[in-house]
Every structure is written in structure tokens, then in C-alpha cells.
User: Fold 2-aminoadipate transaminase from Stratiformator vulcanicus.
Amino acid sequence: MTSAEMSASVQLADRALWAKGGAISYLMQQGIENPQCLSLAAGFVDASTLPVDLVRNATDRLLAENIRGRAFLQYGTTGGAERARRAVLEHFATQEGKAVADLGVDLSRVILTNGSQQFLSLVAQVLLNPGDICLVAAPTYFVFLGTIAGVGAKAITVETDTNGMRPDALDAKLDELDAVGLGDRVKLIYLVSNFENPSGYVLAAERRERIVEIAKRRSTSHRIHVLEDSAYRELRYEGDDPPSVWGCDPDGEHVIYTQTFSKSFSPGLRVGFGIAPTELVAPIASRKGNEDFGSAHLNQHIIASVLADGSYYEHVNEVCESYRRKRDAMVAAAREYFSDIDGVSWVEPRGGLYVWMTLPEHFDTSFDSRLFEIATQKELVMYVPGELCYGGEPAERPRNHMRLSYGVLSPDEITEGIRRLANAIRSL
Amino acid sequence: MTSAEMSASVQLADRALWAKGGAISYLMQQGIENPQCLSLAAGFVDASTLPVDLVRNATDRLLAENIRGRAFLQYGTTGGAERARRAVLEHFATQEGKAVADLGVDLSRVILTNGSQQFLSLVAQVLLNPGDICLVAAPTYFVFLGTIAGVGAKAITVETDTNGMRPDALDAKLDELDAVGLGDRVKLIYLVSNFENPSGYVLAAERRERIVEIAKRRSTSHRIHVLEDSAYRELRYEGDDPPSVWGCDPDGEHVIYTQTFSKSFSPGLRVGFGIAPTELVAPIASRKGNEDFGSAHLNQHIIASVLADGSYYEHVNEVCESYRRKRDAMVAAAREYFSDIDGVSWVEPRGGLYVWMTLPEHFDTSFDSRLFEIATQKELVMYVPGELCYGGEPAERPRNHMRLSYGVLSPDEITEGIRRLANAIRSL
Assistant:
């Protein structure tokens, strides 16, 4: 055997070349490996809110009796345990302000996944061919942008303001795509409806109706689905929960809904769920059958238990109390340290985990920028470069934004992190 | 809006059309929904072996202290928690009969997944383009056949005997594919090295060496990887563990290894692992980043805990004791009820969970056969049609085999199941 043969090169599939999972993995790794850096980057949840006692007690109860306990350590089904799906559907109904019977959702349409991320990924795989288009807000959840790229599809941005994606701009973008012969490639409209990651925007109620109406009206050659990602729905610190986008589609044919227990309860359990239109249930289940044929069964039952006994809801109230204080700390610190820096502005969110900050246009916040270097190496503070949160061509993405999370740090650390960040910016 | 617009048809991605996750989901569902049917079909593990006390105790210890416990309920990293990867690598080294230091495996090459199935799926996605070829034994693990089809690739069978895939047949198949211009499409050789699901075959030690040598020698235009699925390695009831296929590739460049804790411990925790060649680590992690950015963190630490305190190994011994008795019951029942049916033969496995049974060629065991109907509807016993376990064109797949699992039933139920199955066959 010659050495040339020994080292025959690895030939990756197209999909591996498209994958852009790097940003989230890089950030998560950074967050864990650099405890000395104050992380305004990690989308991790507040450690002090993690429900250690609730999970231990739920597990103890589930596994108290040998015979009954075994069932939870066995395989479940691909779409999730019936008891857990039922509990999740009741939870969803509660949020919708309806009785389960009035939702018109068969239990088979509820699919439990490894966090909502796996559900998002399954939807992308089931609906998007290479070259297909998913319309997204600007900015939007950067991990899903990676997922879209990872199946070879394109994320195209729609003009967005503080009330979320603009319906008129959506219609105009669809016209524009039609005009260049790409209208047929639009398969999906992705909306983070509440406290969008990273912007904190809530999609206005009236826009929810209009976007669903547009998706239906423009579904001429094929159905255009709307994917509502409501990951932050329960992390609301003031005001009322508007009706979901899903609720604007009474037939349940156009809107796909997903939500997670990672932010409100525990990401370490990795339980999320989706509610799929009937025609997508089998394709999503088949794809999940190929990938892992079911998420961790025990973890589904832990979630079902805390939903059933109500301890979940008490916990969510505590979590919201804690995040409200931290949101307040970040907003106060931003006012204190950034008010005198010309041209800096930020969104003061009513929920979620993020403050979206805009610097003057000549600033560059990207990974390879001077600012990122000074922030992480000298000031020891980390943020998520806003550039990551935009679809479209790299050259067209604004580079003067930052996503600042108040998730992991204490109020004092948040204040200090913002102070450091202001220092880094001032030094330029 | 017209009703035509309302019902614009759903347009699925190619990948959704390729997905064949249905068989496993269908079978799992059947197993759960038809408790009155004795299931010789389910690959579920024996409920009586499930480690209720061990998991409860491990969870209690992990979550005993509030501060320490929080870490396990937080996000982990995409590839898995460092402590858990280290424990898994030590576990792997133990099986290889080596010290960790002598394995030459950097911890980053150990990737924790939702069972080994997710690792198999990630490898398929990272290496196989639509139209690419994965060479497989005949028969082989049917869920992975679905995964291959799900990425649009082709599973092509290589002649197999009771010692596993034949190296001479592998070489001949590669020649045959070269001759028709398809040699360049071969990216992967898939081997279930120990107690293959469904056949129970162990790949002979000398063949392991030869197959790795062939993969290296034929890696001319690109690297041909060997994917070793060792899911049943620890379920050995007699004899010695042969060196792994992975061990036949000292450079670690050609063989990808995967194993699971689902069969030996608990499928409900959904923890498996893979050891990837260095050049595949980043692509696999990126793809996992797109799909779920990490498996359940708590569950990884439960596995790490039972590996560390040795309770895992005691448990595996008990599991093997239990399965040995059940294997014996199935083999004895087969001898009792099938010996007088002409032309029926079966493999008596030394490990794993399955007996592979062959009926005379004129019998048809498929889902839509008269036999399957009589078995499930009249005799109330279920098996997996052998047809599912073959790659290649549907018309060419043998239809006269059955996979019989002794996983879930008690010895008495196994005996009764085999009796019912013999009745069903005799009635034809």
C-alpha cells in the first residue's frame, strides 16, 4: 500500500459542506471553557433558576416502584409518549386560552423532540430542498439560519421593524421573487413570534393575521407553510400574551408551531415539541425515525409529571421573576454606560433573554473584528455578533449589531459586563 | 380566497419522499399498542433488566446538591459533556483491552448522541450524497437501511454467510461497481460486527482485518469509510469478544465506530456514542449543531456516573444472564416446534437479541403476506419480516425469513410465541 492510498482524501457529502452548525457550537464551547469571560453571548438559561429539586422529585416518583419505573427507561415511540404528548397539548391549550377539545388537534399532531431545535431541523428537512427559500425576519434566530443553510436552502430576509416582520414587505418580497422566477421556491416563512432571538421584538397581533393570510393567498403552486417558533413565549415579564400565529390558522394547515421546555424549565432535559399540520405528521415522524426514532423517554415523563402536578407553572413564575430583575439590570446598565456614546441604541424587551444593541454603522462587531478581540481578550466580556443573525448574502448583512443575553449572569455581573462592553467600544 | 387556494397541495422535499422511517415506527407502535400480541418483533430490551434503582440513585446523587445539580440541567456542548465523554472513552478502552492512553483517541473524537442511531444518521448525512452507495451485509439492520434511503443513497448488499460479510464478495462487488462506472459512488461499508441485527452473525476476526484492508486499498479516488456498529457487543452470552474492526485500523482514519447504552442499560435515556476519524469530527458536530446542538445533558451524566462507580458493569452481567436464559428458551422452543417442519432453519446466536429464521423459499413472510396476517390476527404473535433487512432492489429481496427477538418476552412467553408461530406456518 502506498502512502498516497493511505491518505486518500475524505469526500464529504454536500450537506456536510453546507452545515453551519459551527457558530452555536463555538459559542457554547466558549461559554463553558472561559468562565473568566463574562458571557453576554450564551443563550444558556439562568443557572439559579434550574429546577434541581423538581427534577429529582419527579424522577424519584417515576422510578419509585420497580415495575412501573421500568416503562420510563424503555424505548418510547418516535413521536413521544402518549401521556407526555397529552400533557403538552394541555399545556399548549392553556396558553391558547382554550380547552383541548376546542383546539381541534389530534394527539398524533403533537411531536416531542430534542428541544425545539430538533423540531425546527425536521421541518427544514421535510420541506426544504437545496435551492428552496425560507423567508425570515431581519434579524432572526441564528441557529435556524444554520439549519436552513445545512439543507442547502436559502434564508431570505424580509424587512422587519420593532413590531416584527412587516406584512407589506413580505408581500413585496414575494412579488420580487416571482419577478425573478423564484416564487416557486418559497416553501416556508419562519417567525419567532414572541421576544425574537436576538431582537426581543414581538410580532404584532394584527401582523400575525396578515402574514397567515398572505401565506394562504400566495399558496398557489404549492402550500407555503408558516413556522412559528415560540421558544420564549412563557418568558414574558409584562403585558399580555397575544394570540399565537398558529391561532390565526383555524384549519391548522398552514402554520406549524414549536415551543420548548429548555428556556422555561431545563435545557439539560432536552424536551421540546411541535404541532404539525396533519399532512406533515407522517413525513416528520419518518424523518425522526431515520434520525433517532424517539427522544429520551424518561425526560418526556419528567416534563409530563411537573406539568401535571402544577409545579412547572410555579417554577415558570419564579423564572420570570428572576429574568425580569436581570432584564431590568441590563437595561439600567445600558442606560448608564451607553447613553453618552453617540449613535448607540438598544431594544428594551418585555420578555425573552436578549437585548439587541445597535452601534453606529461604521462599527464592526463580527468575530474577526477588532471590537470582538478587545471585548473577549482585554475586557473579558463576550457577545454574539449581530451579523450571525441575518439571512441573505454575507456581504449584505449589517455588522454593527450585538446580541446581549442576560440569561446566565447575575444582575451585578450583567452590570459589570455592560460596563466592560462600553469600555471596549469607547476604546475604538 | 377560493377553496382551490385553501387546499394548495403540500410539496415535500425529496428527502421526505425518500424517508423510510415507517417500518421502525410502525413496529414500535404495534409493540406498544397490542399488548395482547406476543411480540417477537420488538427490538425493545427486557423490561425486567431495566435499571430503575441505578438510574434513580444516580439521579439522586447528581441532583442532591442544588448548586452542583444545576450544571446537569443546563445545556451541555454539542458533542457531549467532557466528563461523560471521558467515561465513555474509558469504557471503550476497557472493551478494547487497552489503556486509554494507548488508544490514541483525542476526547474530541468521542461524540455522544441520542442512541447510536443518531450517530449512524449523522454519519450517513455527512458522507452520503443522493446516489452514493453504502455496502451492507445481507441481511442487516433495517433501521439503518431506512437512514441510507432517507438521504437518497443506495444500500447495496454484499454476499454474507454465517461468519458475516464475505471479503472476497466485497472485493468482487467493488469490481462489479467499477465496471459499471459506479465505483466512485461507494462511500461507506456498514458492518454490524457483533451479533448482527437480525442475523446474529459475528463478523469473523480474520474478515475484520481483510475488510479494513480492502477499504484502504480501494480508497483511490476518495476515502472509503467503514462504519462499525457494535450495538450488541456487550450482550455476549458465551465466547470471547474478538478485536473490533476499529482496532484493525491503527491510524483511525478509515473506521468509524459506534455503540449504544440502549441495549446494555436503558434505551429510555437515549445515550449512544461514536468515535470518529479526526477529519469527520467537525462535520459531524456541525450537522449535530444544526439538528439539536447536543443530547440530553442530564442523561449523559447518569451514564458517566454508573460507568464510574462500576454499577454499570454489574448490571450488564445481570442483563446477559437474563438474555442467555431467554436465548436458550427460544432456541429450545425452535427445536421443539420447528424441527418437524421441512426446510425451516435458524441461527443459534451467541449474543444479541435475535434468532434469524429461514423458511422454505415458497413462503412469504412480508407485512402484506397471508402468514403475517394469520400470525398477528389469529395466532396473536408478531415478528419482523426478513425482507425489511435487505438492501438492493425490493424485487430481489428474499421474502422467506423472519427476525425473532427474545428481548421483551419472558422465557415462557417466548416458548408460547414460538409455538404460535409454528402453528401459523403449519396452517399454510
